Amino acid sequence: MTAVDLAQNTLDGLMVGASYALLAVGFTLIFGVMRRLNLAYGPTIMAGVYLGTAAFISLGAPTLVVLVVVIIGAALVGLYVERLCFRPFGEGARAASMVASFALWMQLEEAATHLLPQHMNPFPPLLATQPLEIGPLLLRADHLVMLAATLLIAGAVTYLLARTKLGLAIRAVIDQPRAAAIVGIHVERVMMLTFVLASAIGGVAGFLIAATDGQVTHMIGMWATTKGLVAMMLGGLGSVKGAIAGGLLLGILEAHAQWFLGPQVRDMVAWGLLFVLLAFWPGGLMGAKALDRTMAVGRRV
Amino acid sequence: MDGYLITVLSNIGMISFVALSAYILLLSGQISFGQQAYFGIGAYTAGIATVMWQWPLAGALVLGALVASAAAGLVGLATLRLSGIYFAMATLAFAEIMRIAAELLVYRREIGGIETGPDGIDGFRDIRYFFANDVSPLQTCLIVYVLLGMVVAALFMAERTRAGRMLRQVGEDPLLAEVHGIDVMRVRMAAALVAGAVAGLGGGLYAHLMTYVEPKSFDIMLGVHALAYGLIGGLGTALGPLLGVLIDIGLLESTRIFRGYRMIVFGGLVAVLLIVRPRGLLDENAVGRIRHYLRRRGHAGD
After folding, report:
1. Which residues are paired to B182 by β-bridges?
2. Residue B106's beta-bridge partner residues?
3. What is the pLDDT of residue A297?
4. pLDDT band at B255 (very low <50, low <70, confident <90, very high)
5. Residue A136 lies in a domain
6. A228 vs A205: CA distance, rounded Å
7. Nearest CA in chain B to A274
8. What is the predicted pLDDT for the residue at B236?
9. Calpha distance A18→A254 (Å, rounded)
10. Cβ separation B228–A96 shorter than 8 A
11. Host domain of residue A48
12. Contact yes or no for B207/B127 (Cβ under 8 A)
């Protein structure tokens, strides 16, 4: 073990963590307005990525077109999930929403295997250049693009939430849906827009992940759901900054754990950290306030 | 009965244990993504007991249930004060840790000249208790259903006691329950212990019926399915989760009507069903109506 290894692991982890962070941002937006868990979030992303892959394989679509197909595909499938699993239920039927979204997960996975029956499918690479050398460290250019895209999207979401009218409406719905409705906010439309926006962000994340891998399997659905969930919970619910921090932390932690302990223990370390954090510090890194709010709502009769 | 039917019936029976386990926690108001962990713990424990320590089956099943229950108690200490998504994620984290631990678990010994025992990611093979003791598939299926019947009967009786009502009240409104002098944490802990034991018992049976168990057998898919069965079948009675399993495994998977499109049909059906009945087919209202009807018929017969 040398300092170079440590630095290289941290750097690699940071880059992978960027994709986790993007997944967590989408997750936390949905959870924020719905207060319910969307298990079909990862499969929504998978559906978008699969549509993009199909366009790439059968029509030879260029990378940029694939990106657009993935984003629109994920957004439309997100809309479908919202209509079927979230809009019909009130907040009281949290379990029903969750199980319904699980049912659609199964549905989307089977639909995806009909679209592309092969287990592994090629995906257009983002940048096929040599890794950059920074002193003794290696840095992949496409990873750098992933990190930049994450920061850009996080910035845009923060701006949207803090500075625009829609953002104000979203924050109002997150805080107090009933009060928001009383002051004239169309709560259902805000929820739908947030849901679609989050699914589109997930689509970007899915595109970047598939493009850096150069291939895609249907496992990306489950992978995105679990990684996004863990990153979101690590960072704390309902906070964009927390989601970014949680994602990057998870990436760095996994990179080191994989290097020193192997891939199986890597996953164990991530789940173990989540368990300990939830048991002793359930607010996550930056979600203390959000947690207080949830608890306060829970305390009200 | 032909072999295929017996296998399907046995599968329905075994998965019902996990579904009941998730159902018990749902009644207490907690959504667990991790009941598959106790299924796995029960499976490995009972398998090790009969194969490596040459215990009789009954003792092995009891041990599996007890160890699973104890694990559920320990996890409960750390997680039961959490609610909603926090509890769901904590239980999922524990279950995934257990699954990976099973991938790393190697405990091999020579029994009767053959090396056997859990072998990491390849799982635990050759749990041949039923072969060695000449128990036929029909008999094993009966064992499953006798035990399942006992669990369901116990749950039915428990629902009529004070403890059962307390459980539902805690699930519906923990704050109100506390105001009524119910110790919410104790009720939840009791529910977690029972749920762990039920899943562990199912796991022990699974290991012996399948003759093998591997870490993949209790991944997140089993846990979320178990949760879904209760919500599809209904939360009004212990028969609800059983109905859920019956619909999924019995009707869709085994008859292969919708070969290749099963999940597309089933997923859509479940989503629509939950819109109409958010607490499942046999929800509290339906159960109340059925009870009322049975009582009236009972009186008419007098």
Report:
1. none
2. B119
3. 46
4. low
5. no
6. 10
7. B93
8. 86
9. 13
10. no
11. 3-124+141-299
12. yes
Residues of B in contact with A108 (CB under 8 A): 267
Residue in the block written with tokens 């796991």: B203
B93-A17-A75-A116 Cα dihedral, nearest 10 degrees: -80
CB contact under 8 A, A278 and B79: yes
pLDDT tens by residue, A230-268: 898 888 777 888 899 999 999 999 999 998 888 888 889
Q: What is the pLDDT of residue B64?
A: 96
Q: For residue A131, tell me if it sits in a domain.
A: no
pLDDT tens-digit map of A90-105 = 766 778 888 899 889 9
* Segment among A64-78, A96-110, A129-143, A221-235 with least mean pLDDT: A129-143
Subunit contact B31:A229, Cβ cutoff 8 A:
no
pLDDT of residue B249: 83
Query: Nearest CA of chain A to the CA of B147: how many Å?
Result: 28
Whether residue A277 lies within 8 A of chain B, CB to CB, comes out as: no
Which pLDDT score, from 0 to 100, does residue B269 have? 82
Query: Over 70: is that where the pLDDT of A301 sits?
Result: no
Question: Taking Cα atoms as reference points, which of A15, A12, A20 lies closest to residue A229?
Answer: A20
- What is the residue type of A20? Y
Q: Residue A70 and residue A68: Cα distance in Å, rounded?
A: 5
- CB–CB of A99 and B175 under 8 A? no
pLDDT score, position A4: 85
Distance from CA of A289 to the nearest CA of B (A): 15
Name which of A227, A241, A232 is nearest A278 in CA terms: A232
Provide the residue range defining the domain that includes B179.
3-301
> For residue A134, is it within any domain?
no
Question: Contact B90/A294, CB-based, under 8 Å?
Answer: no
Nearest to A97 by CA among A48, A47, A41: A41
Query: For residue A286, is it within any domain?
Result: yes
Average model confidence (pLDDT) for chain B?
89
Task: Tell whether the torsion through CA atoms of B130, B133, B135 and B141 is positive or negative.
Answer: negative
- Number of domains within chain B: 1
CA distance B260 to chain A (A): 8
Please give the tally of structural domains in chain A: 1
**A31-35, A280-284, A295-299, B178-182: least confidently modelled range:** A295-299
Q: What is the CATH number of the domain that holds A245?
A: 1.10.3470
Interchain contact A47–B (C-beta under 8 A): no
The answer to whether A96 contacts B274, with C-beta atoms less than 8 Å apart, is: yes
CB distance from A294 to chain B under 8 Å?
A: yes
Domain CATH for B262? 1.10.3470
Chain A interface includes B94 (CB < 8 A):
yes
Q: Is A99–B274 a contact, with Cβ atoms under 8 angstroms apart?
A: yes
